[in-house]
Amino acid sequence: MTDSETPPPFRILPRLTDLNRDFWTGGEHGELRFLRCQDCGTRIHPPVSVCHKDHSKNVKADAVSGRATVATYTVNHQMWMPGPEVPYVVAIVEIEEDPTIRLTTNIVGCAPEDVYIGMPVEVVFEKQPDGDDAIWLPLFQPAAEKA
Ligand SMILES: [Zn+2]
Question: Is pLDDT above 70 for 2?
Fold first, then answer.
């Protein structure tokens, strides 16, 4: 990283495991990935090695569109710990392919007062160096208008 680049805000990073690696590093390829049961198609998040529907162990990560909907949100005005510049939006978003999969995330790319429940959003990744590794945090921004 050069001096001219703004470092990403400090965040507490998840520990990568074989199970969650696809989720946290899919952003390297611009993909939001979830484990998915290859037998019944159920998407599994948080990642576990067994399908909760049919107990199949045949689970593998695959990519979703990255589109989601804001289910609820709060605007954080207080700097509780080193982190993103305040104010920022902490939201729970529901994934388009499976609204039962909810991610706690930040809404970026718009003013906090422009965020609303039901807002269509799309994933954007924030790369965070993590030792020799890196993770790509899935954040969400207002979705581009559909043509
Ligand atoms: Zn299954």
Answer: no
